[in-house]
Amino acid sequence: MLFLARFVRLIDSLNDAVGRGVAWLTIPLVLVTFLVATLRYGFSVGWVSMQESYMWLYGIIFMVGAGYTLLHGGHVRVDVFYRPASARYKAWVDLIGTLFLLLPVLTLVFIYSYPYVITSWKRLEGSQETGGLPGLFLLKSVILVFCILMGLQGLSLAARSILVLAGHREFEINEEEHEGV
Amino acid sequence: QDVREWRMVTTWPKNFPGLGTGANLLAEYINKASDGRMKVSVYGAGEIVPAFEAIDAVGNGTVEMGHGAPYYWKGKVAATQYLAAMPFGLTAQEQNSWFQYGGGQEIADKIYAKLNCKFFPSGNTGTQMGGWFNKEMNTIDDFKGLKMRIPGLGGEVIQAAGGNVVNLPGGEIPPALQSGAIDATEWVGPYNDLAFGLYKSAKYYYYPGWHEPATTLENFINLEAWNDLPDDLKAIVEQANRATNQMVLSEFVARNNQALKTLREKHNVDVRPFSDEILTNLGTLAGKVLRELVAADPLSQEVFDSLVAFRAQSITWAKYSESAFMQARVLPFKY
Amino acid sequence: MSGEVLSLLMFAVACVVLLFGFPVAFSLGGTGLAFALLGHAMGVFDMPLLGSLPSRYFGVMTNELYVAIPLFVFMGVMLERARIAEKLLLTMGMLFGKHRAGLGISVVIVGMLLAASTGIVGATVVTMGLLSLPAMQKAGYSPRLSAGVICASGTLGQIIPPSIVLVLLGDILQGAYAEAQRSLGNWAPEPVSVIDLFVGAFIPGMLLVALYISWVVIQSFIDPKSAPALVEGKRPEGLFGEVLRALVPPALLIVAVLGSILTGIATPTESAAFGSVGATILAACYGRLDLAVLRHVTRQTVQISSMVFIILLGASIFSLVFRGLGGDHLVEQLLHNMPGGLFGAMLVVMTLMFVMGFFLDFIEIVFVVVPIVGPVLLKMDISPIWLGIMIAINLQTSFLTPPFGFALFYLRGVAPPSMKTWDIYRGIIPFVLIQIFALILLAAFPELATWLPSVLLK
Ligand code: NA
Ligand code: NA
């Protein structure tokens, strides 16, 4: 149990740090997009590489931030039954869900993405657009990063659920209020 | 008897005029000629994979074959873009001759082996149009600061001319052109441009399409799947591609004839030629830009050298044959 | 069992799995994967098809249109932190409060203004619940009417542009419409863009605003006690100046964002960036911009965008397997053989979405249902703008329908314990009926959606 508790804390702090870091990328996302539009309308200049850089930021933000979002309970659940249920029910759902839904899906995505990303690295793939960014293989690698961070956070969720089921109430999840869309 | 059920992914929206129908045609020929031993089904862009992921899906065996245009893969293997179209390069017939008798097929196979694919030319748009402009283009200086959506090697040349190359998703092009977010866009030729409704958003329709004098479409086949075919099926696939290649070009010529008429007569489109001064300057820039680009990559250099050698011979022969005749044909005589 | 039967079974199983409450993205993806394996074992599904997943994911990561979504989210959360809504609510309340139904009307108007300047449902309902609800209670408004009007007005952001649903719908309808038209032999279909949908949604959005206001007024006449005037409603000195000060900044933002989209000066993504910068400047002007706010805004942006797109990735597995099993052909046959032709098919699809909206969130419906039924309906040669707006209003309604209506939850979260959950559920009924009425109007008069784009954009 001590091991599980340590594991939960380790993974949670990892994804929290990653998420907080990635959150700051939203500021360059706003500024670069703003700059691209302003330069084009105001000064008739622009670079495709700059256009692509905000697309990269967008892709990195939601993929790398996915584990962080799970940590903070940000991935939407259909909570007709879940929300009012007991902590034990929630723990069971999270444990079984992680083992039979989340981890298999991420494993599948990882298995199919690995060769896809490796091929891209071997070709040192760049943008297909004129004047686009080189290093597209780095962006593709984000899919693997997503699988790993999300998978680890899933394992943390499962470990947390086991702890709750074993009576460690301090590991119960208090869902935060979310803005929704 | 075992039937080879193959999937063909395409970079075109399903049934896209000319381009997507070429893929349909190819599948139909293969299915009929193989007498049921092969069953190819066609998928539009996004149905299995997004358009620009088609070659990876074929290379890694998710599906067996694909249909697209070689310049889409330049991010993966830079040399592919020269197989599609070269600014101020070859006409459709010359391009086909280069593939069959100028060493083109061999070089293409070498390039596509890097993508784990077998390559066939499988359609050609013929000479395209220069694009839709909301600014009059009188001299090369008019390209300075021009906001144009023009992908590929043509884009490199426009950039060298001081233009501002913009990248937009298809659906956003007409509103962007309408509002002045961009000043110009190239698309394909009258047939596709009419269908896309670009005449509603732009003032001038310039010609010729110096940047894509004849764009080769392609069929790419997973190498393992290709090597696994018996010789007779290989021959069927090869011939089906030759037939498709010819049929697509024929379709473009026929439909462009009609569409240009519609654009001019029904929609009163102002169709204008680029001046000799503009074309001369763009041609000079094209040569410079291309030479710089290919110098960075041996395979690109190889395909470029081969194309340029073929181009030099073709120019001379065309001067005595098709160019001369086409000028003769429009002399003011009654016919 | 054939693949098609399996695909239907998969749909049913997914609905059950979702109800357990594990995150939607993985409930959909996991169910899809299980049925892929089952289909493979039964020889009706081709596993290599799943090899397209990385390509599909990368396609989502590089979709230019979708960049608008994190930007609109950024803008919305920033506006919420800038407390623009509070200023608006307070001054509007003072302006209209002394009339019967006045507070209710001011809630609808503020809801509309917030909706037009981005419109994150959660933030809007929470803010209005925190600020207007106490005022309405103090004035003696019936709990039901207060709850209903706050929840309904809070969801206007879904339909009044800019709207995330419309961006997602635009992307799906674009391809589906062109394909449908080509299969009908129309080689020159008019392209549909997100901008078309934004423009098309304008009048229907205003129609809903008018209907909400009408209902509040009607209610105040039927039962004057349910929507009384403020008793101590003396207008303070200088109210007009206050109103201007509260109204002008968001109005400028709305003009900048909506104006740049509707006139086509900027792409939706670019105007979202303008909006984000504008919202940040506003927050700074109000003295609300500091490191803590910036942290909150950026982190919320990550979480909300990630939630939306990870569901898309999960739904992508689901729909790939659905297609691989032949489910799309089955749906096509079903809808084509529907008695009543187009009318029958539309009725079935709209009812289906409405019912799914009781249990599912709009994102699941957009990603799972629309890609399947959209192309089939469009092949019946209908306006994609009209279809898009019909779907959008239907999805907006899903925020309001119990048991799983986001707006209801948000209000429950901030309403005082004295307001019963039952009041919220009862209070929303007239507004759900209004939504249905608006759908019927739009079905009868498609011009409500198609007219404005036809004059403004062509
Ligand atoms: Na909105
Ligand atoms: Na609902």
From TrEMBL, chain A:
Name of this protein: TRAP transporter small permease protein
Domain Tripartite ATP-independent periplasmic transporters DctQ component, chain residue ranges per copy: 29-161
Positions of transmembrane segments: 21-43, 55-71, 92-117, 137-159
Membrane topology, as annotated: Multi-pass membrane protein
Intracellular or extracellular location(s): Cell inner membrane
Cellular component aspect of the GO annotation: plasma membrane
Pfam families reported for this sequence: DctQ
Family to which the UniProt record says this protein belongs: Belongs to the TRAP transporter small permease family.
Keyword entries, A-Z: Cell inner membrane, Cell membrane, Membrane, Transmembrane, Transmembrane helix, Transport
GO molecular function, one term: transmembrane transporter activity
Domain of life of the organism encoding this protein: Bacteria
Keyword presence, Transmembrane: yes
Role according to the record: Part of the tripartite ATP-independent periplasmic (TRAP) transport system.
UniProt subunit comment: The complex comprises the extracytoplasmic solute receptor protein and the two transmembrane proteins.
UniProtKB/TrEMBL annotation, chain C:
Main localization of the protein described in the UniProt heading: membrane
Listed name of the protein: TRAP transporter large permease protein
Cross-referenced NCBIfam families: dctM (TIGR00786)
Pfam families in UniProt: DctM
Subunit structure, interactors included: The complex comprises the extracytoplasmic solute receptor protein and the two transmembrane proteins.
TM ranges: 6-26, 33-53, 65-82, 103-131, 197-222, 243-266, 272-289, 301-322, 342-373, 385-411, 431-452
Reported function: Part of the tripartite ATP-independent periplasmic (TRAP) transport system.
InterPro entries named among the record's database cross-references: DctM, TRAP_DctM
Subcellular localization: Cell inner membrane
Domain of life: Bacteria
Species of origin: Thalassospira mesophila
